[in-house]
Amino acid sequence: MEEREADNLMNKQISLFSTSQDKTDDELIEEEIEFINISARQLKRSSIEVHSDLIKQLARLEYEISEVKVRILITLITSFFKKHLLSAKYEDKKIQALITKFRDAGRRSAPWKPTSERVPGRPQDGADGNRRLRWLFEPDHKFYANEVDATLVEIKYFLQTLSMAEAPTLPVDSIQESFIWLLGHPIEPGMYLDPIQLVPIEFSQLINTPKTIQSGHLIPLDRGGRHTPDNTFLMLDRSNQIQGNQTLEELLQLMERVVRGYQEKRKNNK
Q: Is residue 117 part of a domain?
């Protein structure tokens, strides 16, 4: 019964998304709203096991996944994430805040116009609502990412969250092993480490104070890095501050010079 339900849901999603090529930003948003309105009741009714089976099917495609199917995957991952945290008794409001955070750091860009439309002369900020789907930028724009890459980045943020210390454990035989190709590790609590300090990130810190965990790029976008799954990670805000606009290699070289300098100083003071 659950297998038939999963197949029916997959077919409905494919038919809804398969005609969305060459749409404008507004049309894509309207299409997403249409899909949510049509499928929300069915997704809500479907068990987390059905979600898991569908996700595992799509995850087998790895980086060869199509635009149509990656749209289905992000919808399923988002629903799975919410169901799982609700079952662990986390507040819906807090869960939704993370979903919005990951969408704005994944498929959508940071505010991209130089000045505010609300207050002339001031820098642009998120309150202007001036975020944009990344694949609608010109390919040479620093915020550009193709749809598959941008969506996989967003999916990666959800899965990194479920791999943080003290995150609620997934059901047995769920999607634990399905995304090693994307994460480099199973989806298990405590497996994910901050990419700069190499320390665990507490799930409770993210869900209770989302601003203290930020998205970052190991090669910053201003330095030629791209918004791709291999260059994007969630990190502690302190780590983001430490890195600044340096590449990881530049940061490590700087830290080595600092450590050597202080070791020499201590040696000479003895």
A: no
